[in-house]
Amino acid sequence: MMSFRFNILADFYWDSKIDKVLDTLSETAYRQFFSEQYYGSALNGITVVLMCQDPNLKLKQRVKLSKKEKKIYLDIMLDLNQFLKVEQKEREKIVVEKLINEVPAIIRKYRLEDFDILKFESDLKKWMIKILY
Fold first, then answer.
1. Which has the closest alpha carbon to 77: 14, 4, 10, 5?
2. Any idea of the CA torsion for 32, 69, 121, 36, to the nearest 10 degrees?
3. Among 11, 35, 57, 70, which lies 20 to 30 A Cα-Cα from 46?
């Protein structure tokens, strides 16, 4: 059985300090936790890219299911102007809420035969809210 890979990366404007949010997420050891879970044979992994760039670039959210790799790649769009104004704790809260709300919703759209979305969603919530306290 392959281990499940859950990765959170970022493409961001430096002053938005998304790198610090990634550091805080990494400190929870979420990658290791998810690698020890089994959600079914339909997906081997999910890669999330936190996008926080200049709105003038007019970047669109990308979502892709690779059937060959059994992986979903998706962007979560963040508001740069908002991120420049708020404190770090608030940045973390926004990212966690978006991860919890948007990732499962995107996975559901694919109606995967063998993927335990309820377990994944529950694990995601349980793990991500750790950084808020």
1. 10
2. -30
3. 57
pLDDT attached to residue 59: 93
- Cα angle 20, 21, 26; round to 5: 95
pTM for this predicted structure? 0.93
Question: Other C-beta atoms within 10 Å of 45: how many?
Answer: 18
Block mean pLDDT (10 aa), the chain, length 133: 89 95 93 95 96 93 96 97 96 96 96 94 92 76
Residue type, 16: S
Point out which residues pair with 48 in neighbouring strands.
8, 74
At which residue do the structure tokens 């007019």 appear? 58
Residue-level pLDDT at 1: 59
List phi, psi (to 5°) of 98. Answer: -70, -40
Tokens of 25: 């997420």
CA dist., res. 123 & res. 120, Å (int): 5
